[in-house]
Amino acid sequence: MGMAGELLMRLCQIETLSVIARTSVVKYRRATKTIPEISRELGVAYLVDGSVQRAGGKVRIQVQLVDGRTGVHEWAASYTRRMENVLQLQGRLARRIARELEATIRPREKRQLSEERTVDSTAYALYLQARALRFQETGAGVVEAVRLLRQSVALDSTFAPPWAVLSTAAWLGPALGGELPPGLRGTSFAREAARRALALDSTSAEAHVAMGIVQQLDGDYPLAGQHFKRALALNPGLANAHLGQSDTAMWLLRQSGYFDGLHYHSVKIDPLLKPLRNEPAFLRELERLGLDDATVRHTMERLAPVFQNGGPKRLRDGETPSDSPLQTGVSFSS
Description:
By secondary structure, the protein is α+β, with helices and mostly antiparallel strands. Helices cover 54% and strands 10% of the residues. The protein contains 16 helices and 4 strands. A 4-stranded mixed beta sheet has the order 3-2-1-4, sandwiched between helices. A hairpin with a 2-residue loop joins strand 1 and strand 2. Helix 1 crosses helix 6, helix 8 (160-175) runs parallel beside helix 10 (205-218) and helix 11 packs antiparallel against helix 12. The radius of gyration is 20 Å and the shape is globular. The chain starts with a helix and ends with a strand.
């Protein structure tokens, strides 16, 4: 899911697209199910399928946009670029897919997707490998991811994404039983890596998520909430940012003496994650806590399909969530 995951991240930056997170999509990487079956299970209208080939310092990406209901290919294209220009290619692909879906791209999103930065090709390849290992969420995988990320930043220390992943790996590795070197584990290194990522790219949503998690570990939930809010402004479809924001909101609810369920929007973006859900009263309480109107209104709009399908359910001990809400969106596999 390396290159595919990066393209997903770019598509998530377009607010008018609802994009399924990689943790749900990756389950279908080698699936034998039909396109309509996958589409129904993910609750999406379209799938983006593709392949990536790297050779001789160049990368070739073939992409197809598929109607999830019929399995008919609506559009296909093939692009070849030098590996150091892959960030530009990802932005171009995201803009083209959005155009084919007749999605509106706001000026800020267009600027984000028109990145001109180049990156050392070997450093980027190491980053992709490490990212895939980190998201396997095993102790051994995170340890190997850290080893590759250290090589990546040694080759190109000005590329922010590896630092953001290093930040999350610093606390995740030990939590999963992985043995990281003393100087590369714990909150202290996680904070330093997140700071480095933000210093290199203050518009990186993942860097803000990394710092938000560090602030949660420090117990500073209000500051964590600011970073998650900024991450969502930069990348409205980033599931980890919604999850972090939800955790922060629940901390505020605990402080106010109110607690009732969790993780609305992360369910919608990552339906196979299946976390708990709560009641509409949760949103009313967010308003009471003083969250700005735009944030509450946006959350309510994005949750409309949940309420239209009978609303979120309160779960009793041992009970499991009901089927995931339907949505229109894009998925990518390779």
